[in-house]
Amino acid sequence: MPKFESMNHLEEYRGRLLSSRNPQEPQVLVCGGPGCLPVGSEEVAAAFQAELKQRGLNGKVVLKESGCQGLCAKAVKVMFRPQEIAYQQVTAEDVPEIVEETLVKGKIIDKFCYQDPDDGSVKAYKSKVPFYQGQRLIVLGKMDLIDPTSLDDYLAAGGYQALQKVFDGMSPEAVIDAVERSGLRGRGGGGFPTGRKWRLCRQAPGDIKYLICNGDEGDPGAFMDRAVMEGDPHAVLEGMIIGAYAIGAIQGYIYVRHEYPLAVKRLALAIDQARDAGLLGADLLGSGFSFDVKISKGAGAFVCGEETALIASMEGDIGEPHPRPPYPAVAGLWGKPTVINNVETWANIPAIMSHGPEWYAAIGTENSKGTKVFSLVGAVNHTGLVEVPMGTTLRQMVYDLGGGIRGGGEFKAVQTGGPSGGCIPKQFLDLPVDYDSLQSVGSIMGSGGMIVMDETSCMVDVARYFLSFLHDESCGKCTPCREGTKHLLEILTEITNGNGTEEHIPLMEELCDAMAAASLCGLGQSAVNPVLSTLKYFREEYEAHIREKKCPALVCRPLLKYTVDPETCTGCLACVRECPADAIHGEAAEPHLIDQELCVKCGMCHAVCKFDAVKVES
Amino acid sequence: MKNDSVSLTIDGKPVQAPAGTTLLLAAKDNGIDIPTLCYHPELKPEGHCRLCVVEIGAAPSTRLVNSCTYPVEPGLVVQTASAKVLASRRMVLELLMAQAPAAEIIKQMAADLGVIETRFTKGDPAARCILCGQCVRTCREVAGVSAISMAFRTPKKRVATPFKEESEACIGCGSCVFICPTGTIAYTEKDGIRTVWGRKFELQPCAKCGNYIGPKAQLEHWAKLTGDPVESFYTCKDCR
Questions:
Q1: CATH number of the domain that A296 lies in?
Q2: DSSP character at residue A562
Q3: Residue A447 has what pLDDT?
Q4: Do the Cβ atoms of B131 and A476 come within 8 Å?
Q5: CB–CB of A557/A581 below 8 Å?
Q6: Do B87 and A480 lie within an 8 Å CB cutoff?
Q7: Does A503 fall in a domain?
Q8: Are residues A376 and A419 in the same domain?
Q9: What is the pLDDT of residues A143-156, one digit of tens each?
Q10: Cβ pair B154:A475 closer than 8 A
Q11: Range of A391's domain?
Q12: What percentage of chain A reaches a pLDDT higher than 90?
């Protein structure tokens, strides 16, 4: 890889690169995304390498480890190009068969393809799989196309063309205008218009300006930014370079949590590659503009995703938020004007510059433009990473992309926006997913967590779970959040333990109002959403816990009662043996009996009974 | 810029305030008192306690901001005692009453707003600390030694020396004890020894009157700051 002296130089190199590559050459891309990696994608890739070598196919088939290919529920995913055949649930043991049948003989093996649960039809091609059909891939577009460790791959896929376009006659103001016209809003959760933020920073007085990429994704179950940083790191860098040019920043930082070691490694590699290629450093591509990027590792506090806390952490101070104003765009890192945008926001920039703001603004709804990446998790059949146009309905997300509720159950609620999002009930399934609609029903876009729940979830317990996370992650600086999350958690725990009182609901509502209004940062202000939304839409569940001491979803253990149906019990002793509290009495072939005084309600008897003789009720 | 003045409305009254000042000070200058806990005029305001919140903006899009840090803005409409402000303030005090049941000042301030008892489960009956951070800021900004800081997150958050060990940086000046609004920080003086943050400090008697001036460590700190010999501080201010 040469050091590009000019834009022409880069274009010449790209031309040579493309002409040296045969687009019809068979390629195997093994997904190395967050869902596939722990299931053994490295072993699968190694097996392909060994098998290809053994068969002398080394030079004929290109093997790559790609970023996240979505549909994480079906890990390990393997993509065959140029046909775009998507295999799923591949193990290392399957590889010899796949090489023989699919690569050598060109035959599709049905068992590795998605099968329609309704008619059993086999969907071998990515474009036919329902999970991908409702998606619009902009940020995730190169995930199953490139090797994230190869700058050549990024260049061959059109990478850094947006930067060339910017340098080729666009003024910084014109770039900001374009971002503003695109309608892009911050993907980290706040939804602040990106162009406006850039303009504020550009207009702020001062020669030294900074730019930060916020990669401190910390929501339970969310891995959108991780997947982008690991799977397409140059897109993030390219977006940052364009942003730096627009606001006049000299130095950029990527703040990543240390729990994302692969993201750190891939980003560090991409930064080195970009520097060596003259895409970072002094006088980029001979444009006269200089900019460099460093990685700043966070220690993993959820609150450090809040921009002022993130800056404090980067400065070596305690990761606590600070009151705004001053806003970072005016006085941020080291007191200098600073733009902070989330990973996904930066990764959108190259596409917006390449295709134009009007193209981008044509996607989405009136006030929410473009696409949004979600980690669709929970009680759906097809969990995974999805990117959909803003305005896609919850129903489409759950039933079309998500393939419906797992195990044929009933949809109960979906929580959007991470732990501090609200739980949205069934009557809003046709709600379009955009910033304003989500807010109108008491939830938030957040950074794109989407947790689907079925009727086996107790909404009081769900609220308690999220409050326990938020309580642990509250930095404790301001009173409403520190003490408020503590007492909300305490009250919710009391209710799930069957000790709730009539006073608890109004007290929580009053406390939530004060927390939302008076907390210092977004963490405390939004921590009330799981409580308020469940109180609003699932109030009868709270009342059942408080008044009748019942948990309708049969989740809250202290409110459950396990009994053995003497008619069904065969006296097999399985529950007697497994009961950790020795609470079950019985002889072989005699119906067993649970001693309610001793029962700890762990549910083990219910789980081990093969005859469905253990009944649980509340 | 310094001479610029800003026109805004506080509690329905048009007021003028110097540009760059805070809503808290602008209100105070106009005879409107806003209760505070973590604010101190000599320290950088940080907005910990949220007691000083005020409501800004015009209905229906109003919001609460802490007046100790929020700067005056031209045309801003501020309410320092709206229903929303008072509800929030009462809730903050109710929460603090549960957190620090032994803090007398909290009980008084709560009573002033009509809150006699907290509805939340009280913590340690002897607890006084409300984590306002005045001690930490005093140690950093006034004493200039940063011997103590906030440590941990909730629910373990507390003010502590590094690793909760005797701090080498501490000069035993006692500024933290002096500034603490709730009397939390343990401090004793006996037989020429001051004990604070678990460390014992030998006190220096005045070369003339024999009264204790302060800890030797503090006088050494002064000597280092000024470049004067430490002995030059061995006379108390009354005998100088």
A1: 3.40.50.11540
A2: E
A3: 85
A4: yes
A5: no
A6: no
A7: yes
A8: yes
A9: 999 999 999 999 99
A10: yes
A11: 371-454
A12: 96
Instruction: Evaluate whether residue A554 is within a structural domain.
Output: no
Residue of A nearest to B149 (CA): A318
**For residue range A2-20, what is the model confidence (pLDDT) as tens digits?**
999 999 999 999 999 999 9
Residue A284 has pLDDT above 50, yes or no: yes
Please tell me which of the candidates B53, B91, B154 has its beta carbon nearest to residue A471. B154
Contact A466, A449 (CB under 8 A): no
Residue A430 placed within a domain: yes
Average confidence score pLDDT of chain B: 95
Whole-complex ipTM: 0.95
Chain A contact for B183 (CB, 8 A cutoff): no
pLDDT at A520 over 60: yes
Q: Which of A484, A485, A490 sits opposite B121 (nearest CB)?
A: A490
Averaged confidence pLDDT in chain A: 96
Task: Please count the residue pairs, one from chain A and one from chain B, whose beta carbons lie less than 8 angstroms apart.
Answer: 101
Verify that A448 and A482 share a domain, yes or no.
no
DSSP for residue A281 = B
**Cβ of B34 under 8 Å from any chain A Cβ?**
no
Two structure tokens written together for A7: 């834009």
A305 and A206 housed in the same domain: yes
Same domain, A403 and A528: no
Tokens of A604: 């083990």
Across the interface, which of A318, A323, A484 has its CB nearest the CB of B150?
Answer: A318
The reply to whether A300 and A179 lie within a common domain is yes
Contact list in A for residue B133 (CB cut-off 8 A) is 477
Which H, E and C letters describe B167-231, residue by residue? Answer: CCCCCCCCHHHHHCCCCCCCEEEECCEEEECCEEEEEEECCCCCCEEEEHHHHHHHHHHHCCCHH
pLDDT in tens, A455-497: 999 999 999 999 999 999 999 999 999 999 999 999 999 999 9
Q: Name the band, by pLDDT with cuts 50, 70 and 90, for residue B170.
A: very high
- Determine contact, residues A341/A329, Cβ cutoff 8 Å: no
Q: Exposed e or buried b for every residue in A106-137, given b needs 16+ CB within 10 A?
A: eeebeebbbeeeeeeeebbbbebbbbbebbbb
> What domains can you pick out in chain B, each with its CATH number?
5-112 (3.10.20.740), 134-233 (no CATH)
**pLDDT above 90 for A72:** yes
Q: Which chain B residues contact residue A486 at CB under 8 A? A: 154-155
Inter-chain CB proximity A479 and B155 less than 8 Å: no
CA gap A501, A545 in Å, rounded: 9
Facing B88 at nearest CB: one of A474, A490, A514: A514
What is the end-to-end Cα distance of chain B in Å, rounded? 42
Q: Average pLDDT, stretch A323-345?
A: 96
Chain B residue whose CA is closest to A514: B88
Distance from CA of A297 to the nearest CA of B (A): 19
**Chain A contact set for B71 (CB, 8 A):** 325
Closest CA–CA distance from residue B91 to any residue of chain A (Å): 7
